[in-house]
Design goal:
Order of helices and strands: HEEEEHEEEEEHEEEHEH
Shape: globular
Strand order of the largest sheet: 5-6-7-12-13
InterPro entries: RLIG1
Keywords: ATP-binding, Ligase, Nucleotide-binding, RNA repair
Helix content: 10-25%
Largest sheet: 5 strands, mixed
Enzyme class: ligase
Number of strands: 13
Number of domains: 2
Strand content: 15-25%
EC number: 6.5.1.3
Catalytic activity: ATP + (ribonucleotide)n-3'-hydroxyl + 5'-phospho-(ribonucleotide)m = (ribonucleotide)n+m + AMP + diphosphate
């Protein structure tokens, strides 16, 4: 379409060109509005948010990584120690205006080995917190080679953070590669668990992700898949 009509002459029809969003949809900060109507950016996107309702079955796995009473979330992020991952609790206020991805037992076939069907475990990962140490050059062939042959390339995708604030995302599937892959990069990194629930005045549900990870508080593993979730889950019989 862009080759037929100069971009400067093309205009979107908001009513016909975009799908209907739920009434609860909220436009993201920075979205331009004209007479109260959110307008698409230069790529034809209107980013926004849909609230994750606490009791919604549609978002039950997202909800399992958040405790609404204490207003904290389970987050997997980079530790200050190089190459070490950390699963910890983070207050929701610290996550404002961030985009996060849910990982765990019931997400995309659980490539990271978090929990199991008997003891599901889910956590959130903020986009941009896990940095690539040796990124590929920006050529198609080098990107393919990096995704296929580099240990660091065994990931779902890359987001480039440009100096002007622009974010550019490349998913493996954008270049015809499969996801998930066997033994992704995150499973090759050591991980520590920092989930201390004693500081919260709350009765966490039995077998919740919070309670399961709290049983591992202070422990460190060579890999995520080294955690024996059945043994942990057997000890989670009551709230904290």
């Amino acid at each position: 379409l862009g080759s037929l009509i100069p971009f400067s002459e093309f205009t979107w029809n908001i009513n016909d060109d975009f799908r209907t969003v739920p009434e609860s949809w909220i436009p993201a900060r920075g979205v331009v509005q004209l007479e109260g109507q959110p307008q698409p950016d230069e790529n034809g996107h209107i980013p926004g948010w849909i609230p994750v309702e606490q009791e919604s079955r549609q978002y039950c796995w997202h909800g399992s990584a958040v405790n609404y009473e204490t207003k904290v979330a389970l987050v997997m992020k980079a530790h200050s120690e190089q190459n070490l991952l950390e699963i910890t609790t983070v207050h929701l206020m610290e996550l404002l205006e961030q985009t996060l991805e849910l990982v765990g037992t019931h997400i995309n076939g659980n490539p990271y080995g978090l929990g199991n069907k008997k003891q599901p475990v889910h956590a959130l990962v903020s986009h941009g917190v896990l940095q690539i140490q040796n990124p590929p050059s920006l050529s198609y062939s080098d990107l393919i080679t990096w995704f296929e042959e580099s240990q660091e390339g065994k990931i779902e995708g890359i987001v480039w953070h440009c100096t002007n604030g622009v974010l550019i995302k490349l998913h493996r599937q954008h270049v015809g590669l499969q996801w998930p892959v066997t033994n992704p990069y995150l499973t090759a990194r050591p991980v520590c668990i920092n989930v201390d629930l004693s500081k919260y005045n709350c009765n966490f549900e039995p077998k919740s992700s919070f309670l399961v990870l709290a049983k591992l508080n202070g422990e460190r593993f060579d890999h995520l898949k080294d955690i024996h979730w059945d043994n942990v889950g057997n000890n989670c019989t009551e709230g904290v």
